[in-house]
């Protein structure tokens, strides 16, 4: 393959297809016909000797080659945009972008929803979507441009310097139960926690972190009842003696809406540093950088309101 075979228009179309996973939506985004986008995709397949996308129902799923190309393509386009508008400051009111944030269900409630409300007022055409993700899965999603930000609650090890991180705030775990829960009526001992029924929400590492704290002190918590969502865990805690462990930032929301009480933790609180992760290919992307600042502002507003 020679450089002269690739023009900027093809890369723009490839980037749109990676973002929208649809010829029709990519065409609408770019203001082109679907046939023009399909023709460009055929040319891209020829250039890269790869299918790049395979159809799965109504969606296009990127191949491994397309996922490998995604961060580099974005860097090239971001650099070109920067050159073309170097004298024009970034204006969020004129920006039109779609971003995805990988986070637990709790992260969606405490961060993604407030961010959406903030962007609706300041940048109505900058949209954020949520996808479930945590740990190494989020790292992989960032590298393959399946998401643009990841909210990390697990102190995930950063495998290489291409993943950037910024600390958002220090959280800690809270154990919740119904007002009549036996553990709520006293100062429980570690042994009481080992006999309790615990709920673990899929994708939320809270229970695992609590169990690790107890294991380090020589106590073994029982296998939890695993549930699919915070809502299911909440209902179990409200209608039984089961206890639900969540970050404080999420507990503050649940306590306002439901009759739940905090249960004293006999071994002291478990710290939970919350970080924002992104791929280095977006470092010079003005819109991405601006959204990072808005996320930090959402965090600041949350801290101020308690």
Mean pLDDT: 85
What is the top-level CATH class of the largest domain? Alpha Beta
Number of domains: 3
- N-C termini distance: 57 Å
Shape type = elongated
Unreliable spans: none
Query: Mind telling me the CATH superfamily name of the largest domain?
Result: Periplasmic binding protein-like II
Q: The CATH topology of the largest domain is what?
A: D-Maltodextrin-Binding Protein, domain 2
Number of strands: 11
Radius of gyration: 23 Å
CATH architecture of the largest domain: 3-Layer(aba) Sandwich
Helix fraction, binned, reads 40-55%
Order of helices and strands: HHHEEHEHEHEEHEHEHEHEEH
Strand content: 15-25%
Largest sheet, strands/sense/barrel: 9 strands, mixed
**What structural class do you assign from the helix and strand content?**
alpha/beta
Number of helices: 11
Describe the structure.
This protein folds into 3 domains: 67 residues, Arc Repressor Mutant, subunit A; 107 residues, D-Maltodextrin-Binding Protein, domain 2 (3-Layer(aba) Sandwich); 101 residues, Periplasmic binding protein-like II (D-Maltodextrin-Binding Protein, domain 2), CATH 3.40.190. The strands form 2 sheets. Strands 3, 4, 5, 6, 7, 8, 9, 10 and 11 form a 9-stranded mixed β-sheet that branches. A two-stranded antiparallel sheet has the order 1-2. The chain is of the alpha/beta class and 306 residues long. It has 11 helices and 11 strands. The chain is elongated. The termini are far apart. Helix 1 packs across helix 2, helix 1 packs across helix 4 and helix 5 crosses helix 11.
